[in-house]
Amino acid sequence: MDSSNKKRKAQNSMMIYFIRAKFMAKYYQQNFSIPDSIIFYIAKNPKTPALYLKMVKTCKYVFIKNEIIVVNRLDDILGKWRVNENPHDFTKYSCKYWITDEITVSSGRLGFLPIIQKFYQCDVKDLFIYSQVISFNDLSLLISSAEKICLNNVIVKHANSSDVPLEDIIAIAVNAKEISVREPTISPKTMIKLTKLSHFFKIDKFVLNNLCEVFDIDAFYSYMKKNTHTKFFLKFDEQISDAFKNRLELIVDEILETKHFNFKSPVIDFYGIDIQKYGKLCRIHYSH
Predict the structure, then answer these.
(1) Contacts (Cβ under 8 Å, ≥6 apart) of 180
(2) Are residues 2 and 107 in the same domain?
(3) Which of 2, 67, 101, 273 lies at a 20 to 30 A Cα distance from 146?
(4) How far apart are CA 140 and CA 20, in angstroms?
(5) At the top level of its lineage, which domain of life is listed (predicted)?
């Protein structure tokens, strides 16, 4: 780290300390017209971040009793956390964090566990995670409110260290509208289990990359012919067998021969697909 970066980091830390010191300087004991127990409950149980911020501006007592920093965006750059696009060291502060809009993590060097323990609540709409190993419990805290989800080379682990299958992840993504997963953990029953999830039918866009041939393509095709809402994009691993490729090509040919579409046509991509067929498949997909 050069001298200018060190100076900037020191200035940021001093600014945070100064703002906090300035905020606390005029904190006085207050007498409320309603019982202290009710005020305490209100301070400890804010319903929304906007309400919490309004209460803090109205009365510093709320912050003293429940120190929460509202964060619109949490991300990383060069393996370091940022809060609202500013470098942030979570180890320096004892407060809790309320994440409201977006989490983007692109560095495999970062671990969620140390910071998730500091989360008061996570209400993000966009969740983008790359190159991480994360526990199912931690993911559950992050994903339930998310509408747009991207898990790229993410391994999700149960407490017993076994890998969490795709269907269990989708099961907790109850508000998802767009989902993209690269190298998902699947089984021959994954597709069937997905169709049994009540909110699976409501997903607008579902992208699976680097799929292996364990994926039940016939169960998918059967579902797809009745699907009128979700746009699917499936890209298969280069190592799939010739027999599986032949099955995929038959499905692609059937789609291309369809005259009238009463279903959402998917994009199916695999190594060796005819480029003209793939182009036509894409045109159909994006025109409906």
Answers:
(1) 149, 150, 151, 152, 205, 207, 208, 209
(2) no
(3) 67
(4) 32
(5) Eukaryota
Residue 181 structure tokens = 């997963």
Split at pLDDT 50, 70, 90, the class of 13 is very low
User: Cα angle vertex 195, ends 194, 201, to 5°?
Assistant: 105
Is the CB of residue 227 less than 8 Å from the CB of residue 265? no
What pLDDT score was predicted for residue 258? 92
User: What single letter denotes the amino acid at residue 94?
Assistant: S
- Specify the DSSP element, H or E, that contains 35: none
Residue 266, both tokens? 């998917």
Q: What span, in angstroms and rounded, lies between the C-alpha atoms of 3 and 139?
A: 38
CA gap 147, 166 in Å, rounded: 17
What is the pLDDT averaged over residues 32-51? 85
Report the half-sphere exposure of 158 (CA within 13 A, side-chain side). 8
Which tens digits make up the pLDDT trace of 161-190? 899 999 999 999 999 999 999 999 999 999
| Residue that is last in its domain, among 18, 36, 65 | 65
CATH number, domain at 105? 3.80.10
Mean pLDDT value of segment 227-255 = 96
Q: What share of the chain is helix, strand, coil (3-state, %, to 5)?
A: 40, 25, 35
CA–CA distance, 251 with 242 (Å, rounded to integer) = 14
How far apart are the C-alpha atoms of 206 and 193, rounded to whole Å? 15
Identify the domain containing residue 37 by its residue range.
1-65
| Count of domains forming the chain | 2
pLDDT category at 62 given cuts 50, 70, 90 is confident
**pLDDT per position as a tens digit, 207-222:** 999 999 999 999 999 9
